Automatic annotation (TrEMBL):
Pfam families per the UniProt record, alphabetical: TFIIIC_delta (PF12657), zf-TFIIIC (PF12660)
Domain Transcription factor IIIC putative zinc-finger: 619-655
Domain Transcription factor IIIC 90kDa subunit N-terminal: 19-511
Xref: InterPro entries: GTF3C4, TFIIIC_delta_N, TFIIIC_Znf
Entry GO CC: transcription factor TFIIIC complex
GO molecular function, one term: histone acetyltransferase activity
Protein name, entry field: Transcription factor IIIC 90kDa subunit N-terminal domain-containing protein
GO biological process, one term: transcription initiation at RNA polymerase III promoter
């Protein structure tokens, strides 16, 4: 298991840690955020800002250029915002995007600062310097381009209060006529981002990486798919006089503090013009109320352009069940929010933080996807959180009043289970499995809580506090059944002061599995279906090199030779019928373009790994001879005996440069 990591920072918000699908950790720490990149192993030597397992990078988050954050005048009292106008732009939220949005199809980091700007960051250049690559607020600014609109309203439209990455949206089936290698959005899914501005407008945004030249001002484009304004509702507070000025002021100042999007349920292909319809449910904490919205997205056919993107007509629909429910009306909703679901998604659960506890809402899939409008099927259960028993409170259940500061779900795909982990600012840690939660089984004490208590005990001994110490949990995030916990340690029963140089935060790692995974396996590439990494990587490379159904073979000799090499590698080393069919079509196209005689290769595209003989000298100098490989040593033709090696007519052998390399062959190419 990974060793604990101690950072000389103090968390600046709750949910202050996020773990990407690439294995990188991000921590919110005031004006900065810190990136922990896993070391690859023996190739990396010792460096000053590193631990045994991690390379640590500190990034300043509150430096903006004038185009990124233009100067503006102070607003009037109705549109004045302390956060936007007077804050120090500290980090108040961060989250990694799904894979596929960044360079080399990696994840990018979304960072929300207290000046209400949402920035995207990624490592750029050979030195992997973390750089702000886009600001999402600019997409909202283009939407509010009404010249007659009041300046204050436009100002509030641009400010982002909260955000959440949706799960990547994947089409249920490929559009008719698509190429063998689908567009990158079919491979990685379509990334979608939900944001809420200061006018309480819920906005669904589609970020896409731009294929721009070097030095372009922005590497990403943002398309607003749908906007839904949240209407202010009656306050569920009997202590405020109905219709009073105070109630009206509360209504006007309510903001969305937390948002969470559930999984996409994709229906199959509905018509030749689309690739299916996807539905997800969006949960929001609006003031002290829970609001639920349905997002319905129709996945249109892939456009025939350079970017090969899907059209996404989108619609919002709000459910008023959460406002009319008597059970929810009596609760003080505080957040955070977390969706729980297994792979089948037959029933989903929404976990909602409340004062001194949390509630769970069980949502059947028919209600979730909008097929059944009967919201009476939603089961609400309240889970109070109690302080641990001590000598002082023995025998009485004392409620724990510290808020829930961290919530995460950990999915075990092998066992098809989903675990919930949560922590509070009072140091309470709880965990349970989704099915146990639905059955009403009691919550359990997680393994990582024991690790935190050991660290707290050491802190107590070092400072001679006599047991007067506590821990505060600031964030939880999971990666491949391992949970990272960010916490701080504090003295109790005394006045506490903070000195910046003494700020310390600790990250510990734990797994609820019986056997902790080794570090080398934790960050190793995951291969499905028991296939070897070399086999999977080779087929991915061949898919990329072979032209698609509607693609043409390039006229230059090197490209034609590369296609021929990929075809030979497929014939001699692959049993994938789809890939062999693809290779045969590429052979037919290559023969037409070059005039080469490729009848032998076409006969051998039958699913059996068959050797391809070296070409004679007259064939090498005849029509289309440029596609065949020649020996660098004797200039004879090169034959293919397997996908691992090739031999020329005179016996010179050529092998892979490296077992794990994606280089196809080193012959004449």
């Amino acid at each position: 298991m990974l060793d604990p990591v101690e950072l000389s920072v103090f968390p600046s918000c709750t949910d202050a840690i996020s773990w990407s699908s690439d294995g990188e950790l991000a921590v919110a720490a005031g004006d900065y955020f810190q990136i922990l990149t896993p070391k690859s192993g023996k190739h990396e030597g010792p460096t000053p800002n590193a631990t045994r397992d991690w390379q640590i990078t500190r990034v300043k988050a509150n430096l903006f250029t004038h185009p990124e954050w233009p100067t503006f005048l102070a607003q009037d009292r109705n549109d004045f915002s302390i956060a936007a106008e007077q804050s120090n732009s500290t980090v108040v939220g961060l989250a990694w995007s799904p894979p596929g949005l960044g360079k080399f199809r990696r994840s990018v980091l979304a960072v929300l600062t207290s000046n209400l700007l949402l920035s995207l960051w990624e490592a750029v250049g050979p030195q992997k310097q973390w750089t702000r690559i886009a600001i999402v607020n600019h997409a909202l600014r283009s939407q509010s381009g009404d010249s007659e609109q009041a300046e204050g309203i436009s100002f509030r439209k641009d400010n982002i209060r909260s955000f959440n990455w949706c799960e990547p949206l994947k089409a249920s089936t490929l559009p008719a006529g698509s190429s063998f290698l689908p567009a990158y959005e079919s491979r990685w899914g379509i990334p979608l981002l939900t944001v809420v501005n200061e006018l309480n407008e819920v906005i669904l945004i589609r970020p896409r990486r731009s294929e721009l030249s070097e030095g372009s001002p922005c590497s990403h484009q943002f398309h607003v798919l749908a906007v839904h304004p949240l209407e202010s509702q009656e306050l569920n507070n009997s202590h405020i006089c109905s219709g009073s000025l105070l109630e009206n002021a509360f209504k006007e100042k309510q903001r969305v503090s937390s948002v969470s999007c559930g999984p996409w349920l994709v229906s199959p292909l509905a018509s030749p013009k689309n690739s299916g319809c996807a539905v997800a449910m969006l949960a929001l904490v609006y003031g002290t109320q829970l609001r639920l919205l349905n997002i319905q997205v129709t996945i249109g056919n892939s456009n025939v352009d350079e970017l090969q993107t899907y059209a996404l007509p989108t619609a919002f629909k709000e459910h008023h069940w959460s406002l009319s429910s008597e059970k929810l009306a009596s609760l003080n909703i505080t957040g955070p929010l977390q969706w729980l679901h297994d792979q089948s998604c037959t029933e989903l659960s929404l976990v909602v933080g409340i004062m001194a506890g949390f509630i769970t809402i069980s949502v059947p899939s028919n209600t979730y996807n909008g097929h059944d409008a009967n919201f009476d099927a939603l089961a609400v259960r309240e889970w109070p959180i109690y302080n641990p028993e001590t000598e002082e409170n023995m025998g009485c259940n004392e409620r724990h009043w510290e808020p829930i500061s961290a919530m995460a779900s950990c999915v075990d795909e092998q066992n098809d289970t989903c675990n919930l982990c949560l922590g509070t600012l009072g140091g309470i840690g709880l965990t349970t499995e989704m099915r146990q939660l639905q059955n009403g089984d009691p919550l359990q004490r997680p393994r990582w809580k024991h690790i935190i208590e050991d660290c707290q005990e050491q802190f107590d001994l070092d400072l001679d506090l006599g047991g007067n110490s506590m821990s505060r949990i600031w964030g939880l995030s999971s990666y491949r059944n391992v949970t990272a916990i960010l916490f701080t340690r504090h003295p109790t029963d005394m006045l506490e002061y903070r000195v910046a140089s003494d700020d310390k935060s600790t990250i510990v790692f734990s797994s609820e599995l019986e056997h902790d995974p080794a570090t080398s396996f934790l960050f190793a590439p995951q291969i499905s279906n028991g296939e070897s990494p070399v086999h999977v990587q080779r087929e991915s490379a061949l898919n990329f090199v072979l032209p698609g159904d509607d693609g043409d073979v390039e006229p230059d000799a090197e490209s034609q030779q590369l296609v021929y090499v990929a075809i030979c590698c497929t014939i001699t080393g692959s049993k994938n019928k789809s890939l062999l069919t693809h290779a045969r079509k590429s052979l037919e196209r290559l023969a037409i373009v070059t005039g080469a005689d490729l009848s032998e290769e076409m006969r051998k595209c039958n699913g059996e790994s068959t050797a391809i003989a070296a070409r004679a000298a007259d064939q090498l100098s005849g029509p289309g001879g440029q596609v065949f490989e020649r020996c660098d040593i004797c200039d004879a033709g090169i034959g293919w005996h397997s996908a691992q090696e090739a031999k020329c007519a005179n016996g010179h052998l050529f092998k892979y440069l490296d077992e794990d390399s994606l280089v196809l062959m080193r012959g004449g190419l």
